[in-house]
Amino acid sequence: MSSEAWAETLILIGVLFDLLGTIGLVRLPDVYNRLQAGTKCVTLGTCFILAGAAVWAGGALAMKAVICMAFVLLTSPVGAHALARSAYRSGVAAWEGTVVDDYRGHVERLMHAPTPMKDEATALAQTEIA
Amino acid sequence: MKRFAAFPLFLLVWMGLTWSLHWQDLLAGVLVSLVVCLLVGRFVALSVLPMLSPRRIFWTLVYLPFFFYHCVRANLDVAYRVLHPDTPIRPGFIRVETTLPSRAARVILASSITLTPGTLAVDLVDSSLYIHWINVRGKTHADYHRAVVAPFERILKEIFR
Amino acid sequence: MNWVYLAAAGLFVGAFLCLFRIGRGPSAPDRAVAIDILGTLVVGFCCLLAIRTGQDFLMNIAIAWALMSFLGAIALAKYLEGKAFDE
Fold this sequence. Notes:
Distance between the termini of chain A: 54 Å
Number of helices of chain B: 6
Strand content of chain B: 5-15%
Number of strands of chain A: 0
Number of domains of chain A: 1
Number of helices of chain A: 5
Helix content of chain A: over 70%
Largest sheet of chain B: 3 strands, antiparallel
Mean pLDDT of chain B: 82
Low-confidence stretches of chain B: none
Shape of chain B: elongated
Strand order of the largest sheet of chain B: 1-3-2
Largest sheet of chain A: none
Largest interface: A-C, 54 and 50 residues
Oligomer: heterotrimer
Mean pLDDT of chain A: 80
Radius of gyration of chain B: 20 Å
Structural class of chain A: mainly alpha
Number of domains of chain B: 2
Shape of chain A: elongated
Helix content of chain B: 55-70%
């Protein structure tokens, strides 16, 4: 297979994954499930598109595509995690079909705790640096 | 002085991004890398540079294909659930205890399980991870641990030993 | 080069599905999630544009967009949680 055929295959697979992710975003019942479908499929799909561009062009564009892939892979799970946590803490209810919820107890304890989360985080950051 | 230990790394990334060896580009890269060192050098010197030992690089290279395989499997799994007419999901928030010692290892574990089959890390408190699982199987914390974190933990333990 | 247009059409459909979720989303986090995913789709779109025109500065836009959409997602998450950006 020539390099253009490889690039074509990779990019079309990537677009297919992107489409599946966005279909999941529309079809699934609550924000956490949507986040699951969206993050996983769209991250991998975009990585496939970037890989296709790297194969197609080579040189400077390929290097930038690889760096961009690393950024997307590192940032998207962190973003998803932050959005899921804030959604839960801002009180978005999970879908009624949710079978277990171990997280509720932790969040309720935090709401009534005297020390806010901020102090814990800054204390940790300071011990890491010291 | 420790914060300048990451200087070559920043310069390499800059050279990759500009993709030229002209002296003007290199001079700009040196200046930018110095500024970046002053800003975040301390964090990178603490967290990234200890990763560059041969044993850790070897286990990272073992980890990447393994991670990629699980990543693709996760996507096919989500695709099946999304395209199935009744969307067969059984979601739940579970808690698992991880035995990994360092904070960096736990963060990497959380990011990995976010990108792999049906799981999304919601919160990380000390050694317990709260995870949203799209298809909960099993009843006890031991079941959850075996199904969700055990395969990744085994390799991450080698990297962060 | 027709496959590039086919891929772009696929991404357009995906972007419209995201817009549907942004408009419809019953809660604010639903919209935030859709915005985050739309940002990642735009990275893919910049990539296709770089292939079609053969100009690699478009990849710089893709990198910057990826990082900016991450910052946006974090800022939205902090806002939804009711915190300031530096907490």
